[in-house]
Amino acid sequence: MYLAYEAGIITGDSDGNFRPQEEVTQHEFVTMVVRLLGFEARVQELGGFPHGYLQVADELRLLQNTTITAATADEVIIRGDIMVLLWNALRVMNKI
Fold first, then answer.
1. 13: exposed, middle or buried (C-beta count within 10 Å: 0-12, 13-18, 19+)?
2. pLDDT 10s per residue in the chain (96 long)?
3. Where do the domains of the chain lie?
């Protein structure tokens, strides 16, 4: 977790708190993946958290074949969506 924090992938909540025992929402996981891929500048152009991350994820087709939508993004992410999102991220990485 420390390496992810140092790399800026995980930043904690608005108060800077990191709660490793808490569940992760769809918004939070999408945010981490988009940061990992290096699209933070584009996200900020679109308004930042949370909608900028979802919009970039959609542009990159990271959300393809997941149940993640803007309407459900505050819900806890399910394992299947985690795996599909990571698979889609690997496809994006191969194109960069």
1. exposed
2. 678 878 888 887 777 777 778 899 999 999 999 999 999 999 999 999 889 999 999 999 999 999 999 999 999 999 999 999 999 999 999 986
3. 30-96
